[in-house]
What we know:
Elements: E1 4-8, E2 11-14, H1 15-38, H2 42-67, H3 69-74, H4 89-107, H5 111-136, H6 148-151, H7 155-166, H8 170-173, H9 191-195, H10 204-221, H11 232-249, E3 257-258, E4 261-262, H12 263-289
Antiparallel strand pairs: 1-2, 3-4
Amino acid sequence: xxxxxxxxxxxxxxxxxxxxxxxxxxxxxxxxxxxxxxxxxxxxxxxxxxxxxxxxxxxxxxxxxxxxxxxxxxxxxxxxxxxxxxxxxxxxxxxxxxxxxxxxxxxxxxxxxxxxxxxxxxxxxxxxxxxxxxxxxxxxxxxxxxxxxxxxxxxxxxxxxxxxxxxxxxxxxxxxxxxxxxxxxxxxxxxxxxxxxxxxxxxxxxxxxxxxxxxxxxxxxxxxxxxxxxxxxxxxxxxxxxxxxxxxxxxxxxxxxxxxxxxxxxxxxxxxxxxxxxxxxxxxxxxxxx
Length: 290
């Protein structure tokens, strides 16, 4: 796997950048079609897409920096060095949501109307973007021979087991068979390959891509055709992505940590609970207003 899609002289176009560019342009075209149905100007949609993207990128970076504050406190010059990696999707969601609130307020629009329109497309874009992670060899999983009792445990348990595994003899190592037949071996120049050289890993980025595409089809082709209270699709997106991330994070090797727990599990559970309560409240209110 090569992270560079095209290179002309010193110009390099990465698969990661290409995937997100494709996702952005597909998303904005579908968003314009939805705007036509709701009588919203295409100019407003184009401006909103830019604001949401920028605020999402800022939120994703700030979230990552805060969870790695010990490193960035010692290396403040790297805070803006996004080309070295370091984005967090939960921070991107929060940042994009804040950007939406600000933009909607300035344009006198219901922010959750915009949220309902963009929510399915976020899952589509996140799914496409994971193929960029595949090319980079990042957002990777643990080795495919990792026992399930280790995977479905607190993340530090995996590294404790893996340390003991590396001390085993070849005969002892041979007892650990691959649990799945689709593990991927990444180049040693990639984050996945440098952490687990020459070992088949769970393709966690493809697990998440698949779940995100399923969520996109559910929101775009089913939920948006139903008559729910404004905001329901947005908060359903939060629930779907939270469930997806909880599942995938069991297999991921490089998740951020929060007091010994996987941070995505903690944050996803909180977001899921909040979203479920809000959906119940707004739809009860909508039903009582009819």
